[in-house]
Specification:
The structure holds 2 protein chains of 2 kinds. Chain A is built from 16 helices and 8 strands. By secondary structure, chain A is an alpha+beta fold. Chain A is globular, with a radius of gyration of 21 Å. Chain B is elongated, with a radius of gyration of 22 Å. Classes of the chains: A alpha+beta, B alpha/beta. The interface between A and B is large, with 47 and 37 residues.
Chain lengths: ~400, ~190
């Protein structure tokens, strides 16, 4: 077993080794179920996948090189464009990293706004993840219902900061805009509908659906030691049964003030760590995020309005040093390794540990021996966004 | 364990081969001798008190202005059992950066190391799949090096306009065809 936990396996076959009854099949980069521009080379024997080799880089936009040529706040729009389905989480992680480098601590008002936005974004992101996953394996309706709710969240974002997808919202030391007058009420209104209608509907229509269970439970099982070895994080790791969530373990932005539970895959319908568990965890997390937002809105109401730009530094120029900061983005632990050389206003080096990148790196291990149709179920359940893999 | 205790445990086990510790910075690290990295990493994972079962991040960094010029590979480790973190570093000579691979210890190192090779040209000896990962296979050079210059052409396409092209275009000549048409930005405002 130990040998399958590490090692590549991706390089162990060449086109000239293909048997006569085997075929190499290219899936992507324009395949609708690869969630972006991902190409997978599949060595197939009939319907069975003997080996898989993912090719990434089609969406590479030199994020790390760009980051070295602009100043610290200038990197934030680029971070938005990495995981474009969950931009708030990306810029929050970056802002936290630079704040750690500078030694800034934002006030409770700004932190609470950040929590609200991050959790709304988590709901929106999981809406896309679960919705498109359902569509991948043949359930069209949940996608429409979830996108409807995501749209309402995007409306809230647009109302707050003017953008619907790429927000440039979390600044170093603050946020770009205070929440507008009436935001709390509108947000509550949305959450009421969401809690009362969308979540039960989703659990009934999709997660509890017999076809969905048959299609996902027991497929793409990732044991927990494999998940740790390949650095799966977020819902993927929790789906494998390990209750690790940075919001609980190393709270940032005052997450320790809020009550919520960390769902882990229980393997109700098959082995723990299957596609079903990963999606089930996502759905429960959506409900938990709603709980956090309710509490954060209550907290926000009790607070006096503060200047959200109060701690924003005029000029970001950290002393020589380096930091590795993590945050719990919707897709897992997002890490920024930032090196400051102490002389310039540009970061010396920004390396992003993308949760999707590491989730994709375990793909060839999980894909071995699956059916081609299950490959679709596997890619969707890992919930990768290619913008973040390629950066 | 805190960073100090982790470093003490490492230096008690490896002595001279773990040096250059910095516990003051936001993310404490220790510098490890290049040839000992696999051994140290293996110890970090297997030792029950350290139990670094997770490699959070592996980053290469280029420092051409240091004396001597060097490259660094930084391993950020996390223990899920003890929830403590630490970082290991290796210093590599910049003209021939090469370090043994740790993919046998953490599976995720495979792709991170491919990325470090792709972007910075750091060779990971013993790597099972030493291909480029983000850039095309026929790309020449390693762009995250600090002395990187963009090439003029990639597969016959202009990557950046040359000075002569810019001059001719400024003189009103049409340069390039179709999607590769090059017009300098300040010509667009002449109405």
């Amino acid at each position: 077993m130990a040998s399958t936990l590490t090692g590549s396996g991706a390089a162990d076959w060449k086109p000239e080794d293909i048997d006569t009854d085997e075929m190499v099949l290219n899936m992507g980069p324009q395949h609708p179920s690869t969630h972006g521009v991902l190409r997978i080379e599949l060595k197939t024997d009939g319907e069975v996948v003997k080996a898989a080799r993912p090719h990434i880089g089609y969406l590479h936009r030199c994020f790390e090189k760009h980051a070295e040529s602009v100043d610290y706040p200038g990197v934030i729009p680029y971070t938005d464009r990495m995981d474009y389905v969950a931009s708030m989480g990306n810029s929050l992680g970056y802002a936290l990293a630079v704040e750690k480098l500078l030694g800034i601590e934002t006030g409770p008002y700004v932190s609470t706004i950040r929590v609200i936005m991050a959790e709304l974004q988590r709901i929106a992101s999981h809406c896309v993840a679960v919705g498109t996953y359902g569509m991948d394996i043949g359930a069209f309706t949940p996608f429409l219902h979830l996108l409807r709710d995501r749209e309402k969240i995007l409306d809230l974002f647009e109302w707050t900061c003017g953008a619907r997808l790429l927000y440039n919202y979390n600044w170093v030391g603050g946020v770009s805009h205070d929440v507008p007058e009436g935001f709390v009420k509108a947000c509550r209104q949305f959450l009421r509908e969401y809690d009362a209608i969308t979540i039960p509907e989703l659990m009934d229509l999709l997660i509890g659906n017999k076809i969905f269970i048959k299609r996902t439970a027991g497929v793409g099982v990732c044991p927990v030691d494999l998940a740790i070895s390949y650095d799966l994080t977020g819902p993927n790791l929790r789906g494998s049964g390990l209750p690790r969530d940075l919001r609980k373990d190393h709270p940032y932005c005052g997450y320790d003030r809020f009550e919520f539970t960390v769902p882990v895959g229980k393997g109700e319908f098959g082995p723990v760590g299957s596609c079903f568990d990963r999606n089930w965890v996502r759905c429960i997390e959506m409900a938990e995020s709603s709980k956090i937002i309710h509490q954060a809105l209550d907290a926000l109401e009790k607070m006096e309005r503060a200047d959200v730009h109060e701690k924003v530094p005029k000029r970001v120029k950290p002393a020589k040093g380096e930091v590795y900061a993590r945050s719990e983005a919707p897709r897992g632990q997002l890490g920024y390794y930032i090196v400051a050389d102490g002389t310039g206003v540009n970061p010396y080096r920004v390396k992003v540990k993308s949760p999707c990148f590491t989730a994709m790196s375990v793909f060839h291990v999980l894909a071995k021996g699956m059916m081609i149709a299950d490959i679709i179920a596997l890619i969707g359940s890992l919930d990768v966004v290619l913008g973040e893999i390629d950066r | 364990m805190d960073a100090k205790a982790i470093h003490e445990r490492l230096s008690a086990r490896f002595g001279e081969r773990v040096t250059g510790v910095n516990l003051e910075t936001a993310s404490p690290f220790a510098v490890v001798a290049t040839d000992a990295i696999v051994e140290v990493a293996g110890f970090c994972k297997s030792d029950p008190d350290l139990a670094f079962d997770n490699l959070m991040c592996l980053a290469g960094v280029d420092y051409p202005k240091e004396t001597p010029p060097r490259m660094e590979v930084v391993y950020h480790l996390l223990s899920y059992r003890h929830t403590h973190t630490f970082a290991l570093k290796v210093h590599l000579p910049r003209e021939s950066p090469s370090v043994p691979t740790v993919e046998g210890i953490w599976g995720v190192a495979n792709w991170h190391e491919r990325e470090a090779w792709d972007m910075l040209g750091i060779v990971f000896t013993g790597h099972s799949d030493p291909r480029r990962i983000l850039l095309p296979d026929d790309w020449i050079g390693h762009p995250l090096r600090k002395d990187w210059q963009d090439p003029d052409f990639y597969n016959g396409m202009h990557v950046k306009p040359t000075a002569q092209m810019a001059e001719r275009a400024m003189g009103g000549e049409k340069i390039g065809v179709g999607p590769f048409d090059f017009t300098p930005p300040n010509r667009h405002v002449e109405h």
